Amino acid sequence: MSESTEVEGRRFPAPEQLTAEANVGPDVYQEASADRLAFWAQQARRLTWTQEWDEVLDWSNPPFAKWFVGGKLNVAYNCVDRHVEDGHGDQVAYHWEGEPGDTRTITYAQLKDEVSKAANALTELGVDAGDRVAIYMPMIPETIIAMLACARIGAVHMVVFGGFSADALASRLDDSGAVLVITSDGGYRRGAPSALKPAVDDAVGRTGSVRNVVVVKRTGQDVEWTEGRDLWWDDVVGRQSAEHQPESFDAEHPLYIMYTSGTTAKPKGILHTTGGYLTQVAYTHWATFDLKPDTDVYWTAADVGWVTGHSYIVYGPLANRATSVMYEGTPETPHRGRWWEIIEKYRVTILYTAPTVIRTFMKWGEDVPAGFDLTSLRVLGSVGEPINPEAWLWYHEHIGGGRCPIMDTWWQTETGAHMITPLPGVTTLVPGSAQHPFPGISAKVVDDEGNELTNDSTGLLVLTEPWPSMLRTIWGDDDRYVDTYWSRFGKEVYFAGDGAKKDADGNIWLLGRVDDVMNVSGHRISTTEVESSLVAHPSVAEAAVVGASDPTTGQGIVAFVILRESGQDSGDELVQTLRQHVAKDIGPIAKPRQIMVVQELPKTRSGKIMRRLLRDVAENRELGDVTTLTDSSVMELISSKLPAASSSED
Ligand code: PRX
Question: What atom in ligand 1 is closest to the CA of residue 517?
Fold first, then answer.
């Protein structure tokens, strides 16, 4: 038996003590399926509403759902004020750790003051409920304060990951019509300050809607200044009163937009709203991680710029009055044990991260975590891509000391919160499978006609009932919302874009995207987006991009390009130029691992590029069926040119 089969066959029953003390028990599934809407209403009551809803769900006009119709609440009040009013003002909300080693401790009472001041500043700057505010920041507490300040006044935040380029920021500012940008001079990454303000200056200069730029001082580096437009956070927020009366908003009031890559070149602005979103992120955070607010120290090691950060660094943990850790920098700075040092220092009990990071730690070796005391950990989580059983087992043994259950959570920017996951204390764990739909969630694996598949047949993952934290639309494009997610199997079935299978025990195994979306280190990148970037370079006539499997990053980006002039230098220098071009255009995460200069691309008779064959080449596999190609010799030419797969690291 090979090692991987041995791993795949293993089962991990819930630890007895956890079963006895867990927040939820096995009855939760039965309870939720008996009356799904009553179940979600019960979870909504974990929040404080100023007005109770009249109806739990209005699904009369699918796929446009309304949850907790008529209900009113304030998200920031639920995340901060109510805990202070309940006597927990001195509890730490965040232990913040800067990359250079500086630290800040923020209690719930301090968070309330800071959010109130920032809310007053936004109002002074003329930001109204419904206005969009862009947040382009490093991982510092002001990022969270800014998000909560927006929520408090009903402004819609639109966080753009700090690793995205000026171009990416500009297109998001433009699409969302943001009136304000909150940014900083920069942040620390890999031991050095990185700049953010120049990208903001560039992007804002190209868009019409932004009136002001508020700048947090983090690194102290020099920044260009536009008088009348730019303001220091310390001035405009610092001078405000710490008193602010939160206003209640409708359950369906927009909370935020988060752009994500789809199958076309234009990223989609995923819109989340207030009541249903907060209900599901709070409840899933509490149930999936067995969060005990009085004793746990919780850490989602991700960036706030992604949905994982929104739901499980900010909204879920705060709604549950968690004490969290927030870390600014990279795992290897200043040494490869930085994460484990942080866990030892703060006695972290719950760690949530991505398989790509776990595989990197595996490469660095188990001696690194072995040098630290990780005995405080009790529950682990994984998100972003399928976790291969070997990585699962390594995480379980070398980080979890063999005692911590791993929650492999499947969800998406669009779903807002966990959708398929085991539950600690309940589920017997199966490494590599996300296992069961969360209580109150209906997921199926179906064939192309929509017939349900069980017994290990590979099909498509669909969600067959609406859920509270579902996206409500694509910003400004209802038609695209319907077409993208709710057209393949009719208007009441959500097509997730993922392949999946269900085994005889009812475990769901996620098999990756079935569309032209790549998953690189847990980040979604569209093949079309990278192709458009490449063809925008003057040297490139045509480009085809595929995601090839990569031992560390899950998938790596491999591009095939045809140059404009034959005879043009196609050497290494040009390849490097093109890689840099994409990094600048979209962001460093989109930089292709390899670029192959070719004479032709394999196309079907109808002119469609056959990515399947290119993927075979990129993964050094035997070529699949080439009979539908216009010219099958093209493939021989391409395969003969491909060098051995190179490392994705640089
Ligand atoms: O393909 C699935 C994969 O990540 C996609 C969603 O990406 P994004 O919207 O960026 O959100 C990432 C964080 C929630 C999904 O369509 N994915 C996410 N989690 C898992 C996963 N694939 C397998 N197992 C998971 N646990």
Answer: 1
112-167 per-position pLDDT tens digit:
999 999 999 999 999 999 999 999 999 999 999 999 999 999 999 999 999 999 99
Q: How far apart are CA 648 and CA 650, in angstroms?
A: 7
Question: Model-level pTM greater than 0.70?
Answer: yes
138 lines ligand 1 (CB under 6 A): no
In one letter, which amino acid is 427?
Answer: T
Residue 622 included in any domain: yes
307 touches ligand 1 (CB under 6 Å): yes
Cβ(498) to ligand 1 under 6 A?
yes
* Residue 578's CATH number: 3.30.300.30
In a domain, 467, yes or no: no
Distance 359 CA to ligand 1 centre (A): 17
- 513 is known to lie in a ligand binding site: yes
The string of pLDDT tens digits covering residues 235-269 is 999 999 999 999 999 999 999 999 998 766 788 99
Residue 9 assigned to a binding site:
no
Pocket test for ligand 1, best of 260, 270, 410 (most atoms within 8 A of CB): 410
Tokens of 108: 């719930």
Structural domain boundaries enclosing 576: 521-641
CA–CA distance, 233 with 110 (Å, rounded to integer)? 17
C-alpha 260/C-alpha 524 separation (Å) is 7
Q: How confident is the model at residue 310 (pLDDT cuts 50, 70, 90)?
A: very high
Tokens at 312, concatenated: 């499980």
Cα(202) to centroid(ligand 1), Å: 32
Ligand 1, atom 6, lies closest to the CA of 412
Residue 127 lies in a domain: no
Give dist(CA 597, CA 591) in Å, integer: 16
Give Cα 286 distance to the centre of its chain: 19
The reply to whether 599 falls in a domain is yes
Burial class (CB in 10 A: 0-12, 13-18, 19+), 378: buried
| Tally of structural domains, the chain | 1
